[in-house]
Please model this.
Amino acid sequence: MSLIHASTIQITKASTSKIHSVDFDNLEFGKVFTDHMFVCDYEDGEWQNPQIIPYQALSMEPSARVFHYGQAVFEGMKAYKDEKDQIWLFRPDQNFERINKSSKRLAIPEFPEAYFFNGLNELLKLDSEWIKPGVGNSLYLRPFVIATEPAISASPARSYKFLIICSPAKAYYNEPVRVLFAEKFSRSANGGVGFAKAAGNYAAQFYPTSLAQQKGFQQIIWTDANTHDYLEEAGTMNIFFRIGDKLLTAPTNDRILDGVTRKSVIQLAEDLGIECEVRAVKVSEIKEAAGNGTLKEIFGAGTAAVISEISAFEHADDVFELAHVEEGSYGSLFKSHLLDIQHNKAEDAHDWRYLVK
Ligand code: COI
Model:
């Protein structure tokens, strides 16, 4: 595929910036957006008219298919600034591949690589002031595609919008997370869309998660839909278990998101000489390990969540509290390694960093 030139993207700058009204020390995740956004339309069988425009409301007919059938996919990425004010992305090739994999499953036309990368580069250069340096600061990027065709027959749209919006972010979870292991509801099933970042995958979790929250648990670790015996993922993050000195995590399949942070943790574990088994993880073995004291840690891994400690889980009315590991926590080790690579503070042995130019 030939790369488009940046000048192909039409840029309209915002007349004023909102940045001075933002309290960067007290950010609520995903509530504040930068001055600009990237937009590209799919019409007449091709992606066209890539633009960067001031962040603004969209105008769409109420019959747009996205409102009726949820034909929408998205990605989560982050941009980081180092001490020399250089802007970095982390493994953006993975997000590009995954949004097109998600799109394909939802019958959405794949997005061109050149538009994706040039759009990101130009947008980040324009909104670079919004990326604060320092480990813990980032700009969360939300590329997404929606079906805009005004028509309500249940079939794929003929027109779409691809957008990228940006939101300054710190941690998604400020505290260790308490989770329920799912016993009744399911997030995904064989042959379904669980592997895709389809908007509906997330909406479908809100009701069961709100029930979990009423019981004092912030998240659910989903189990396989057939038996509820195997632990899969948490919806906002993939999950790792540490039993003794060994890590366990579920293999990806058509029910589980192929998380970029997940695969980076698996690689870092290998680099650091930590044994990591990628295999089906039974609820019963985790309960047994919690009971006999060999379950040392559970943590989630995701772009927004980074690495988030899980401090307790509940299953079948049994509640297990996990003691915080002060010394030698695997979760803390992976978190600091990842953040140092992302912020250009450590060697990037696998070429994961991408310099925005
Ligand atoms: C991400 O980590 O980027 C996600 O998409 C999770 C989302 C629920 C914030």
Notes: The first strand starts at residue 10 and ends at 11. Residues 199-214 form the longest helix (16 residues). The chain has two domains: 6-170, 177-342.
